[in-house]
Specification:
Helix content: 40-55%
Strand order of the largest sheet: 3-2-1-4-5-6-11
Radius of gyration: 19 Å
Distance between the termini: 42 Å
Order of helices and strands: EHEEHEHHEHEEHEEEHEEHEEHHH
Shape: globular
Length: 330
């Protein structure tokens, strides 16, 4: 019998990229799922075991409503956007993230839920050749992730505070690498690297412009693999922060070449714009801890990109409606 069968589970940010992957996997276990999202898109109308609530989690009373009669909380909600936008509009990232975390986690504690999973970020790390979980509190977040990184760190610290004061140990913290997959934000002006490049490739004719010189190294993980890691952390009650990534980096040059090969009928040249910021030189996860618990990425980058491109080609309207709807409210 599945660990999650018949349990009442809350997934915040459930209509986003990771939330959708997580809900699909949880549905297969026989769990009863409550999905909370701020947007108007409800893709679960035909699902009997999924309850959808449109709630703004910046409001504490809404968080109490979200956590009512819940056993397990997967707190996935966050602000989605490119590093460039995060640097130029830091309050739009920092303030909502702090409010989401503070209110939702407090409500979950007050509601006496059995377990809380908090979704942190690769952005909590300081620049380094490899990201080790236990190094976070010895350093500061990268200047390229300063505001978003600190906001995510505060959520981790909040969980640690409840453990110290209330002896609440039934929580997990995951720090995913660069996530990509279906249901992502593909707006080239406000998207992460893979969806942004997919959009650029699909809409380019002779060449595609890419920021930097292509030498930046990144660790990518498919959304479904992140969801698997989250469920593993809860089922095994992993109390230590857990990196979720591939553990191996590829250059942006290798990435864009892979995307171009995946998109049908595209033979594009790459134009590097070295005048634009390209972020930290290397961002790769140490996966020893997660591996010791049995976690591994099951989706290759090639397969993940192929599935992501196919989803976007078939669901452009969904992506544009969802993220335009959120941006109008933010």
């Amino acid at each position: 019998m599945s660990f999650f069968k018949d349990k009442k589970i809350l997934v915040t940010g459930g209509t986003g990229m990771v939330g959708m992957a997580l809900i699909n996997l949880l549905s297969e276990t026989g769990a009863n799922i409550r999905v909370v999202s701020i947007d108007n898109v409800n893709p679960f109308q035909k699902e009997k075991n999924i309850e959808f609530k449109k709630l703004d989690l910046r409001n504490y009373e809404n968080c109490i409503k979200a956590c009512e009669n819940i056993n397990i909380v997967f707190h996935v909600a966050g602000i989605k956007g490119s590093p460039a936008v995060a640097l130029n509009k830091p309050a739009s990232f920092y303030v909502p993230t702090i409010l989401f975390n503070t209110n939702l986690i407090e409500a979950a504690i007050k509601s006496k839920v059995d377990h809380i999973l908090y979704t942190s970020s690769i952005g909590v790390y300081s620049p380094s050749s490899i990201f080790n979980e236990d190094d976070v509190w010895k350093t500061f977040p990268s200047e390229n992730d300063r505001f978003a990184g600190w906001a995510k760190r505060m959520g981790e610290l909040q969980m640690m505070a409840y453990e110290k004061e209330l002896n609440f140990k039934n929580y997990s913290i995951v720090r995913p690498a660069n996530i990509y997959g279906p249901y992502d934000n593909f707006d080239p002006k406000n998207a992460m690297v893979i969806p942004s490049l997919i959009n650029k490739v699909l809409n380019s004719e002779e060449f595609v412009e890419v920021w930097g010189d292509g030498s930046q190294i990144r660790d990518f993980i498919y959304s479904k693999d992140v969801a698997r890691g989250m469920m593993l952390a809860v089922e095994k009650k992993i109390n230590l922060p857990l990196n979720l990534g591939s553990g191996s980096g590829i250059t942006v040059k290798q990435l864009i070449e892979s995307i171009i090969k995946t998109v049908p009928n595209k033979k594009l040249k790459i134009k590097w714009d070295t005048s634009k910021p390209s972020g930290d030189k290397v961002r790769v996860m140490n996966m020893d801890r997660a591996s010791s618990y049995g976690f591994k990425c099951e989706t290759s980058l090639e397969k993940g990109i192929k599935e992501t491109v196919e989803w976007y080609l078939n669901n452009k309207n969904y992506s544009e409606k969802k993220y335009n709807s959120f941006n109008e409210k933010s």
